[in-house]
Records
---
Amino acid sequence: MFNPKRGRRRLAPLLAFAVALGLSFPAGSGESAAAGAPTGYYHTSGNRIVDSNGDPAIFNGISWFGFETSNYSPHGLWARSLDSYLDEIKNRGYNLIRLPFSSQMFDPGSTVNSINAVVNPDLVGLTPLQLMDKVVQEAGERGIQIFLDRHRPDSGGQSELWYTAQYSEQRWIDDWKMLAARYANNPTVIGADLHNEPHGTATWGTGDPGTDWRLAAERAGNAILSVNPNWLIIVEGIQSNVRGQTGSYWWGGNLKGVRNDPVRLNVPNRVVYSPHDYGPGVAQQTWFEDPSFPNNLPALWDSYWGYISKENIAPILVGEFGGRSVDAVSKEGRWQNELVDYIQANDLYWAYWCLNPNSGDTGGLLLDDWTTWNAPKQTMLNRIMKPLSGGWQSAPQPPSSLTATAGDAKASLSWPASGGAASYNVKRAATSGGPYATVASGVTATSYADTGLANGTTYYYVVSAANAAGEGENSPEAAVTPQAGSNGSPGSLVVQYKANQPNPAGNQITAQFNIKNNGASAASLSGLKLRYYFTKEGAAGLSFFVDYAAVGSSNVGGAFAAVSPAKPGADTYLEISFGPGAGSIAPGGQSGDIQIRAAKTDWSNFDQSDDYSFLATQSSYADWTHATLYENGALVWGTEP
């Protein structure tokens, strides 16, 4: 009836690195328990997952995709080391990875690629399966557990059913048995997510061996348990075609059939049901247009999958959910926050989609540089993050932005609040990047005036948030140069800019903006238009995306126009506008983050090196006159090219 995943698997082009084959592990490398890994295995008890001692399992989960693609490796290993990713996953409080793969990964001709040998020398020459062993080993050493996800048969895309003409059901089962045997004595790997998002012709409870997903899950689950009885068997839903039921839902999200036709396995207490759920950023659905939205959503979730946990039938692990917007205004943000609250209220298990930033419709917990953590998303997820054994507690995330306004011998700082923060620490440095010295601690407001500064000297600031669990990381840096005679209000409206991606070559333009109001009266955003100037390079059309906006992504629009005549560094501009729902910027206030992207319709590269509005070195917010702002049609900030 619909294709709800039309863009979520569109991935950014990858760097290609030549990888020679030849290095091998000892034969039993995948089977030995990793040092420091949690001991024991899991089973189910009603709607809970418990360990071998009967104690409740505690999971904070995240997906890290890439093995299922033609790279046959977790994405991002071209940018950072495997160790650095796993360290960050652990340090952020996650202890469970959902690791997708494809059957094609195990074909003799499939080779690992897009590995940066400089930062990952130990991965050079590994086969895809040996690289999976390495991920398992390194995760286990950090106390992170994994469940494997057969995401697709071949690396090219999703399939409706668990088999295709090229990859039979028997091949699917044989792959699972091979993996179950390979990791049979390794408690780092705890389960099998049998197949990702059955949909289309997939059925539940119909008895047709070629389409009945419930029967196929039983065949595969029993085969796995015959060689490894300790694994959890994770079963996703379908889209529609449920015996005795009506309704069509997200791919993998319809579990109505469990009530009358549950999955039956030869080893009891192993089934975990795993729906996937998404917002309007992936596809529009009727329930997003309901007048009672988002209050209609809990009953909807109850009917398709939530009842399984509520009625103590089996555990629910929400295996995928995610989106770019987490604000309280846009539909995407309201859906995502409502689902987080539902997970929290019903104490459900979950794995967030995803670590990767290159998931087209949803983005990830990493931003496009593969280094910066998405603070607004993490702040939302902190509501369902659970403390882990070993002393992890949730220190607050850093403020997502920091603005600094110059005054006479002073700097006026302001930042958005961080969820869970009790206070803030203000730090200052004489050079960009630090070292920073703390100039104020225990600040309870979201602003601070640093006085007694030298006029004409540039200062660099960061702010961290703190609570009883400790101090979080530093915010993005803001630079400011005090000037004699300045009152800290350089103009009524000011545009600040920072570059999301310092590399001028790529298939997307990414930028962040913040509009400050230094005037004495409120400024209506609907009367403002912001222009970003660049060179288009080529005749392809252009597309505009809003990744996040504090005023609500749905309240931000974009249009492209030609600069006529063309100027050096500018033959096109992007004009960003705001709807009535964006509201106003109060005197002394700011719009907050506006994170945008632009791409060509053929996804060819831009060359931003000489673009008028691009500044690769601008890694933190600063006033930027090469982005112009218009109020009711009149230029009020910046210099046109």
---
Amino acid sequence: MSACPETERFAALLRSLKSRSGLSYEALARKSGLAGSTLHRYCRGTSVPQDYGSVHRLATVCGAAPDELRTLHRLWALADAARAAAAGAEAGAAERGAVSEAAGGTEPDATQEAARDATQEAEPKAVPAGEPEADAPTKAASAPAQGPAPAPAQRPDRTPAQRPALAPDDDRAPEHQAPGTGTGAVSRPARRPRRNRLRATVVVAAALAAVTVSAWALSSGRSSSGDGEGNGAAGGRSTGEVRPLFSAGCPPVIAMGEHDECVREVQRLLHAKGADIGVDGDFGPQTLRRVTAFQVLAGLQPNGVVAEPTKKALYTSRVRMRVWSPQKVRQRVREVFPEVPDKAVAIADCQSFLDPLHILPNTNGTRNWGLFQISDARLRELGGTPRAALDPEWNIQAARKLWSRDRDFGDWPHCERAADAPRSPAPKRT
């Protein structure tokens, strides 16, 4: 038996369905298209199927009711997530072991590190070109070539404490002095740096003032526009209020298998937008489907995880997720399929439980969408999109087109057999 509680609960439900059907493992394997040994492993909990399709076939052969199919899908998703997490942990441990083993023979010992530190301390350190020590010899060597440069102290209007320090370029000012001129000829180049500094100061002050005014105007505009957007967003939140999904208590990505207050906040926001979802803090298959549907409707990448773009959209998007009731779905399916109304309703119920936003991921990365679970390949063939497939009217009409080709439900083989097969009688209670 499996030590994983999710896998054991999934296997227990399979065993219950198998026992109620009254069929042997060989008969079940033959009717569901599975190998007998594979079916044994599933029921013992030593293996979890990677594709829900095989589980669905097995359950329908056993005569599972719609509620049991929902429960089975939820348990399979949890068991599959636990299996993937365990496989990832084992792979990470193996990789860390390989890295540590490879690094074991190349780590330097304490003697080598000490020798390297001593060598580094013994090496002379290069002094940057801008340090005074490097400039002093250069200036000293260039002083005789330039001649006795007039010092700023010769100006009677300033004391030594009031003289501004010359910029590095000011040292070259005496080179512009014409031969034979006196100190009066030097005063004009000396005043030019002062005017340049004054002009630069004025420009910087003007730029700072402009930036300050722009920042104030931008912040005022954001405040006013943010309040308007927040009041119109689902849940009545303004941008000035705290958004728990962006707090330090929530991880950057919220995904399948988590159970905490961050998941509860996601569910609360989805429910406020009209989604049929329980607010229990458990990120299970139903939350995965609702998150994916919201991402499709909001124009985001439908990856089923709540990262920053989805968090932001949950607070600001005006998307509504209210859908048709099961009664309205049944009525419309019967109207579109007047030739086989009961069977068409049974197919839709088997595929999506009459949920227009039902989304089923496949192990190969594709998905099935909406009431009749239109596949990605069929969507491309019909010229549709995932967003269109979540519209119940479009989905029903698309199913009608597929049925009209051969006037059968060959695109839904497993549910067609389940709709045609008589239900297994319930076991008598003794």
---
Amino acid sequence: MVNDKELFQKYRPLAVAAGIGSILGSGVIVGLSSTITVWQSGLGMTNAQVGIISAALTFAIAIGGMLSGSVSKNIGLVKSFNWLNLIYAIGALICVFAPNYMVLLLGVIVTGLASGADLPISLTIISHDAPNEKVSASLVSSTQIYWQIGIFISYICSFVVSKMSGAVGARIVFGLLAVIAIIAWLWRTNSKTFREFHEEGNKHQNVVSENTKSNDSVIKQLFMGTNKSRYIGFFLGIFIFYICWNLLANTFGQFQTFTLVQAHASQTFATGAGIVLNFVGLIAVWLFSSVASSPNRNRFFIVGMIIQAAAMFGLAISNSALWPIVIAIGCYNMGNNIAGEAIYKVWTQESFPVETRASIQGMMNGISRFACGLFAFVTPALVVPSMIRYTMYAFTGLVIVAFIAGMFVIRLQKKYGIIQDAD
């Protein structure tokens, strides 16, 4: 009989193909933010136009996520998984050849919509095709590694091309993203192995859900179905955890370098430290992936949330000395990736019926992105030296709220037999 480790290795290529979507998702976010000043100088954009471009990407990703359920339902889960990367590539290529602000804005919107829709659909295709929930949890959590890889690629490429004149360097970064998207599109659409996985997944899901599958809307299944108390509990717990965690992760990511510079680090040191600290995060994701399908992940979650809270509190009470701040940020990057996006993805895929997962995760992703986009308007006022200490205290509170919500989800998972206590 084939064991779960062998099944994980068998289905791993599918996780890699889905993970490329995570590379593209983080890649376009970091790629744009790290090259926006290059675009500004190359295309002669105003500060207001720079702000609109950045906000457009955030909201496009949010809208794409919220539409992912409708897209997968109307076009088909497999077709959506296969073709969204081509749309992403078209958007990235529009950016590459953009002669002015309006064309760049169009390219960013197209790329963001495709990226936002692809992430929940990619994770749903894994849980759809995986032979059991344990293998599914391991595969889903492993895709978070690729999100970190996307950040690395964008940072390194942006650093390499930073000395190029005009917008050439930024065009190269988006050209690389377009190439990666095309490779993913060709692989997903032409792989015979993936077609076999999809066919096996269809058979498995038909057997599992023949008596439970409903044509009702996701909202109706959640709030009016026979298991409404169960799904409402999971939805609220996971959503509160994710929106608190995401507000912190997105906002903190925007002023990590700023915090280091305020502690009298050079720009070179701050940028280099950012790369090293992201590598710490990559190690943390790898560690979590090794326990994602076991009850031990609950212990990782508790440790990760305590580390995040301690890091934020440490930053709040610290003076402006550089190395204590570097250590606190390093601890945050470790805790953030042990108890963060990866466990959110696993919880979402485990806690809801397969036919609703893309819609539910897309809804959570979309609302969270909208909140982060709106929050970005006040971020500059929160990170000035006179306010940053109070901001860190507030972030400590956000971590505590996320911790409580996460423990509620864990309790529900134990109650409904999704995962057991660790021995």
